[in-house]
Write a structure and sequence with these properties.
Blueprint lengths: L1 H25 L2 H4 L3 H19 L5 H24 L1 H8 L3 E5 L2 E2 L1 H7 L3 H10 L8 E6 L5 E5 L22 E5 L2 E2 L1 H6 L4 H10 L8 E7 L2 E6 L11
Antiparallel strand pairs: 1-2, 1-3, 3-4, 5-6, 5-7, 7-8
Helix pairs in contact: 1-3, 1-4, 3-4, 4-5
Length: 235
Amino acid sequence: MVEKLGQVAVFSLFSLVALFVLTKLMGKRQMSQMTMFDYVIGISFGSLASEMAAHPDQESWYVLEAMGIYALVTVLINVINLHSLKSRKLFLGAPLVIFDRGRLYLSSLKKAKIDLNELLAECRTAGYFDLEELEMILLEVNGKLSFLPKSERRPLTPQDMHVNPGLERPSVAVVMDGVVFPERLHAIGFEKKWLDRQLRSLGYTDYRKVLLACVNEGRLTVYPREAEKPKDCYN
């Protein structure tokens, strides 16, 4: 009994590692932008992995081979999709127009298996409580709805005001949990000596006292590690 449980534990861990490695090889799109094809592959992978974990015997290696074949076929299809529009449309599908210029397409709703209540709920979730605010609604290949508001309903942008705010860069975390990242400093044109001077000027002589430090357009912002527990203001 103990030996059987040990085999199950080993094969469960092995199936988990194999599933993780194969998913990494197939790309992050498997979890971030899942299409119908990715969904089918994901379910198949999960079924094969659970089968291998539940039956820790010699035949489980055939399950691993099947997972490898699934991964290989998926990678090949993704490569083909990158070079063939017809193949991309076959395996991934194409965006579906649900609403366009005041016209609601019932045939598209039926094809997408979306009822009016669900559509209106998705509109409200996106911040649109009236279809008159929208120019177009698209159902993307990953099953998500995209909304194009009418021009008079869109947020005001600097371009609308004929203002050029200049190029903006994201804030870069150069110290996290007391650990310095020199490669990040080099990527934004600074050295560790510059960071040390900036920290000393702010009263920090030990990196371990810094929970997070970020650089944005040459300006260093430091969030210290607090020793005491935060006060609960919501009870």
